[in-house]
Amino acid sequence: MKISLLQLNAVVGDLVGNAGQIAAGVREAARDRPDIIVTPELSLTGCPPRDLLLQPGFVARGLSVLDELAASLADAPPVIIGLPVPNPAGSGRPLFNAAAIIRGGEVAEIFRKSSPSPGVLNEDRYFETADREVPFIHVGGKTVGVVIGERICYEGPMPEVIINPVASPFTVGKARLREEYLSRFAREHGVAVAFVNSVGGNDDVVFDGRSAIFNAAGRLVARGAPFDIDIVTADLASPSPESLAPDDHVPESEIWRALVLGTRDYVLKCGFTSVVIGISGGIDSSLVAAIAASALGPENVLGVLLPSPYTSAANIEDAEQLAENLGIRRCCIPITPMMETFSTRLAGVFSGMSRDITEENLQARIRATVLMAMANKFGFMLLATGNKSEIAVGYCTLYGDMAGGLAVIADVPKVMVYRIARWLNAGHPVIPQRVLEKPPSAELRPGQVDQETLPPYDLMDAILQRYIERLESPDEIIDAGYPQETVWKVVRMVELAEFKRRQAPPGIRVTDRAFGTDWQMPIAARPWWR
Predict the structure, then answer these.
(1) pLDDT digits (tens, 9 = 90+) for 475-505
(2) CATH number listed for the domain at residues 253-450
(3) Per the CB 3.0–4.6 Å rule, which of 183, 184, 204, 259 could disulfide with 218?
(4) CA dihedral sign, ordered 504, 519, 473, 178
(5) Residue 18 is inside which H or E element, if any?
(6) Which superfamily is assigned to 2-249 in CATH?
């Protein structure tokens, strides 16, 4: 039996465009004469479609497009296509997450997902759970079961081949675990498994592809490209290859590729082609600029220097050097005159009051106003440059450095930002070495450094990882050996910053618990553990 997997980059909501992608992929794959061609979960609608699924017209139009697609592929091998279908029961959730098999110009059968995926895709909001006993189809002389989703939930007699359409969101390190699980399932049940995954970025979610086919002994016989569209074809009757090229599981490399893909797709799918970034000579804006240049091409990135009286000459030099290294366009707009105007206009109402964080935040908001003006005037998207550590504890300015259409590294902790930057420089140095060495600073007052306000980033990131991703309580973190005073300080800062995060732009998800869809905390609340 020969199977072809179409690893597609669908656009959410673009039913006709996605159908065109599927048709083109089917025609290309058909040259190898496969017995069946498979597309990912929800390939016709794009994933995640979220509340588009609550619009009956959207679901109905999807079924209509499916019929049109089936008719256009009447001469093709059987094709499995993912889409939502109505739940006819009149009770429970309104839809099933389904896979339709088209052959001979029409829809031959529909399989329904029996176990909604947990987490970021929020499937329980929309999809009813189907029975786990899946009927067989017969393809290429084999009995075949179609099981949708990341966990193969199957009851009843086992087929010879399981086809597994999936939309499996990327998080760092997940791909290795996914392959280990599929290999073990195939080996333990003596069944070949063909796993087809989506690829591309849709809003905050990135899909990494890496579709794979395992034989009944659990041996990997084919793998799709990571972070790229691909067609994967394998004949289960052929001898397994002695080895495949190893997959890339280096965390820095994986996160970099996810961020580049996520940025490219978010910007382009939102209808933009170019971006503007405030470059300060710091590590965060330097990494975001490098990601944007790789994602969109340096000619489509504008870096803007916005020096204040407190900006060091070294930072200006580093920002200019970064722009030159990346080949991006740059300009410089000093904000000192604007700061002076604000100071003059507010002098009366602020009379008798000392300078404090108010004036510091004004600088960030002036910069945001300038950057948004440029974004509006030129039709660019503004990219925010804050990292996960700063966003977690509120070390960022609402309507200031948080402004933007996309927060590229919002799910990347500060320590990992440095690791990715060093990894990037090892291949081709682009970020000035001094950026990697100097103490991080917002430069909102003379001599300011982050560690005046925050614990050391390595300590803070470790506490945040336990609190946010492992869901440990403050007492559990303290019992693990972390300083009590620092733990309470960090956790309190996380609590107080919730209102800021609720107003932040979307960020690209690379961990198991990103702010946004994964993080649904109340704002007006008191901690349960006090």
Answers:
(1) 999 999 999 999 999 999 999 999 999 999 9
(2) 3.40.50.620
(3) 183
(4) negative
(5) helix 15-29
(6) Carbon-nitrogen hydrolase (3.60.110.10)
